[in-house]
């Protein structure tokens, strides 16, 4: 997948620049603007050399591309200059494998991750594992042009657990919370979230969380059925 993301990456940058120009800055634009702050008298070629150390060894066509990039970034000075770019939403791309590592080692650096379908599937499961697994990961598919949306668990079906009253319902429940938030029903969303948080906080959990808690040496873990966890959520609402 590493070498098939170029079109998606370029589309993402183009979309950010077209739709949210005043609110966003790309990583390379931030470098150009920071270099200009450091040396206000530098011309575009100086900026190009600071951006690309091998600039002088590039072909004329390559140099023209870099110069256009530098000049485009400099044209943002009215909205991004004077350090204002530091308060913008930073847009950057990364290869999937290093992204997977960095979301674990420095998760606080990520707010929104946009990916192609396959890499998104890998990343969403891995990120869900950091908070207990896909049993607690909600999902939403939102059309921000029309407002229509579908909310569903991020996981698929688990046929081997059919009719066993066993699996964690939190992903479905929290998807409902997202739906209520989308509809503007904040009080309903807050009450349900409070119920889920309290049930887990009391260590009344389904088998997946019980297994993790016991492995970490937690005391007082009460493993319950799916329906019993639902009852615990209701009791704590």
Mean pLDDT: 91
How are the strands of the largest sheet arranged?
Answer: 1-2
Any idea what the radius of gyration is? 24 Å
The coarse overall form would be elongated
Number of strands: 6
Low-confidence stretches: none
Structural class: mainly alpha
* Share of helix, binned: 40-55%
H-E order: HEHHHHEHHEEHHEHEH
Largest beta-sheet characterization = 2 strands, parallel
Euclidean distance between termini CA atoms: 44 Å
Sheet-strand content, in percent, reads 5-15%
Number of helices: 11
Key terms:
6 strands; two-stranded antiparallel sheet; 8% strand; mainly alpha; 11 helices; elongated; 53% helix
Describe this structure as you would to a colleague.
With 237 residues, the chain is mainly α. The protein is built from eleven helices and six strands. It has helices at residues 6-19, 27-38, 44-51, 60-74, 77-80, 96-105, 117-129, 170-183, 186-201, 207-215, 226-235, and strands at 24-26, 89-91, 138-142, 149-153, 204-205, 222-223. A hairpin with a 6-residue loop joins strand 3 and strand 4 (149-153). It starts with 5 loop residues before the first helix and ends with a helix.
Briefly characterize the structure.
It is built from 11 helices and 6 strands. Helix 2 (27-38) crosses helix 4 and helix 6 (96-105) runs parallel beside helix 7 (117-129).
